[in-house]
From TrEMBL:
This is Glycerophosphoryl diester phosphodiesterase. It holds the Pfam family GDPD. SUPFAM superfamilies: PLC-like phosphodiesterases (SSF51695). InterPro entries: GP_PDE_dom, PLC-like_Pdiesterase_TIM-brl. It comes from Anoxybacillus pushchinoensis. It comes from the Bacteria. One of its GO terms (molecular function) is phosphoric diester hydrolase activity. GO terms for biological process: lipid metabolic process. Signal peptide: none annotated. Residues 2-237 form the GP-PDE domain.
Amino acid sequence: MAHIFAHRGSAGTHPENTMVSFMEAERVQADGIELDVQLAKDGVVVVIHDETVNRTTDGTGWVGQMTYRQLRKLNANYEFKQYGFCPIPSLQEVLEWVQGNSLLINIELKNNLVPYERLEEKTIELVERYRLASRVIFSSFNHESMATCRTLAPHIETALLYMEKLHQPWNYAHTLRALALHPYHPTVDRSFVEAAHANDLLVRPFTINKEERMKTMFQYKVNGIFTDFPEKAKHIREKT
Ligand code: G3P
Ligand code: CA
């Protein structure tokens, strides 16, 4: 059965990458959450998608040039006013909360544009501190970083994120010791999923919000999907 990962929490209905968004994923019984991490100026691993706070908060500036204390004052709820003030979570805060449930956690390292120093080490340290390795998947568009994670923590699964269609990326993925491919969903068809499985790679396409496309992905027997609407995805999965 394909796992349903609530993308940036439940970003279709709640402020992305905030605790209320992750809690909504738990409420609708998604299998997992997906979140994005970066490093604040003082080395705190924070949960936010963009390299600046401009789009998702009421502040401006680069994430990496602000301390966690400064970031924490910002309101990361730019869209769903009914949820009021929603701070940028630290990864520590999310992992503490996750300890009380059974959600899988896809931690996307957002280090493909800004090369955060030791983001891999700091993220792994937190996952180990909360003993969550068996429930964590690391992913990134920075594939070298995924190889680094496997070297530092060989027991934690890694996945390669990519946008463009790749031709038979099996050997490439094996060389990086990745266990999964996380492709942009329009690049995925049935033969790709079958070939990936034949080459011992899991497939979890992103980000799928249309019901018809969810159904198609489930029929292809992908291992998981990322969606902003996990509740809707659960209904589609039950009917497929
Ligand atoms: O992990 C899947 C997806 O989150 C990757 O794209 O831009 O939403 O982080 P993005
Ligand atoms: Ca992401």
